[in-house]
Write a structure and sequence with these properties.
Elements: H1 2-14, E1 22-29, E2 39-44, E3 51-57, E4 66-68, E5 74-79, E6 86-95, E7 100-112, E8 114-119, E9 125-130, E10 135-140, E11 152-155, E12 171-176, E13 182-187, E14 192-200, E15 205-209, E16 213-214, E17 221-226, E18 232-237, E19 242-249, E20 252-260, E21 271-276, E22 282-288, E23 293-300, E24 307-314, E25 320-325, E26 331-336, E27 341-347, E28 354-356, E29 361-362, E30 366-374
Antiparallel strand pairs: 1-2, 1-30, 2-3, 4-5, 5-6, 6-7, 8-9, 9-10, 10-11, 12-13, 13-14, 14-15, 14-16, 17-18, 18-19, 19-20, 21-22, 22-23, 23-24, 25-26, 26-27, 27-28, 27-29
């Protein structure tokens, strides 16, 4: 009788729970400026690197950048990027039990061509960067994960020396500082990192502009990654093909050194995404042609933040706009936008080097990846 009771309790407690350590992969795509299959959700096998498609969000336009909340409960996406009218930001509830997304709400993003989303370390605020009209918008995240109407929009007018790309301000991304007190926004058109304080009251938060940080002319600041230790930051410059290393100290970024991400000098550079391994030992950067589609691997000096080249690896496709590192550090996944494939690499934890696996995911125009282990 006692054995039967124990068995029933075991079934009751464990039988209805979802298996632990399930990993979900979220992929955002361009949809040719018309409603289409914008977001795909895959079940990712942590042992083999294989993926199984579980859900597709259809009839939505140009969901080209995704951002997952730290707890994985909510997914945020830009909507209607690269359109002639204001884009939007959508909030979704992640249903891990049924592996699908539930739309919570959608808000006007306050500008043209939303390109990047970032969430602060409290999970209460979301920043959106609008590329085409050089603007930055701030949203309050409600307790249920939905977005309030935008609370602030800042517009910038500026330019720099490459007239074909820097004729106006182009805000490409923004990051909250590790201490949560500052925002750094990266203006490709102006060759500037725009710096803000977060002015907080009991009811609201607002951005207040400080003195901008100038990058080298023609750099084209695009994406940025802070080191896990909070002491260093790294800027991927699209137009110069270089990575700038900075020391971070209480709202200041002090330039250390820059490094060519490409294997050789070219007339045109298209450096794109940048991420640091979970252990903080290695930095990864993607290069999108025209003659080189690679992931460049650097080793990070933990004392001074300087970089040492490890290798450059072909991405197995064209135009690696975005990539992601598995939370365990074991895999790196690259979204090759022009060849409609996501390539999975095994990542050596000791050397940082990448080995391509035969686990490609076929998906049209992938442009953004988020990955999360659900315990």
């Amino acid at each position: 009788m006692k054995q039967l009771l124990f068995l029933l309790l075991t079934i009751t407690v464990f039988g209805c729970q979802k298996s632990t350590n399930e990993t979900l992969l979220f992929v955002g795509s361009y949809t040719d400026k018309q409603p289409g299959e914008g977001i795909h959700v895959y079940q990712f096998n942590n042992e083999t690197g294989e993926s199984v498609l579980k859900y597709t969000l259809d009839s939505i336009t140009n969901t080209s950048f995704l951002k997952l909340s730290d707890n994985g409960e909510y997914l945020y996406s830009v909507v209607e990027s690269q359109m002639p009218h204001h884009g939007k930001v959508a909030a979704f509830k992640v249903d891990t039990q049924n592996t699908k997304l539930e739309l919570l709400n959608m808000q006007d993003c306050g500008g043209l061509n939303p390109a990047h989303l970032e969430i602060d370390n409290t999970g209460n605020h979301l920043l959106n960067s609008n590329y085409s009209d050089g603007s930055l918008s701030l949203f309050k995240i409600k307790e249920n994960g939905s977005l309030e109407a935008l609370s602030q929009v800042l517009h910038f007018k500026d330019s720099s020396i490459i007239k074909s790309r820097q004729e106006a301000s182009h805000m490409h991304s923004a990051n909250f500082s590790p201490d949560g007190n500052y925002v750094f926004a990266h203006d490709l058109g102006a060759d500037k990192i725009r710096r803000f304080t977060l002015s907080k009251t009991e009811d609201s938060v607002a951005l207040k502009n400080l003195k901008d940080i100038k990058t080298k002319l023609g750099s084209g600041p695009r994406h940025f990654a802070f080191h896990p230790n909070g002491k260093f930051g790294y800027l991927a410059n699209e137009l110069s093909g270089k990575v700038d290393a900075y020391q971070y100290d209480n709202g200041n970024l002090v330039f250390i050194e820059d490094y060519l991400s490409y294997g050789q000098q070219q007339d045109i550079y298209r450096t794109a995404d940048i991420h640091i391994s979970p252990d903080g030992k290695f930095l990864y950067v993607s290069n999108r042609g025209p003659e080189e589609d690679t992931i460049t691997v650097f080793q990070i000096n933990q004392d001074n933040g300087k970089l040492t080249l490890v290798e450059r690896t072909d991405t197995g496709g064209q135009h690696p706009r975005n990539f992601a590192i598995h939370p365990s550090g074991k895999y790196l996944l690259v979204a090759n936008m022009f060849t409609d494939n996501i390539v999975v690499f095994h990542r050596d934890l000791e050397t940082g080097k990448l080995t391509k696996l035969d686990k490609d995911i076929k998906v049209k125009s992938p442009s953004s990846i988020q990955i999360k282990i659900y315990n």
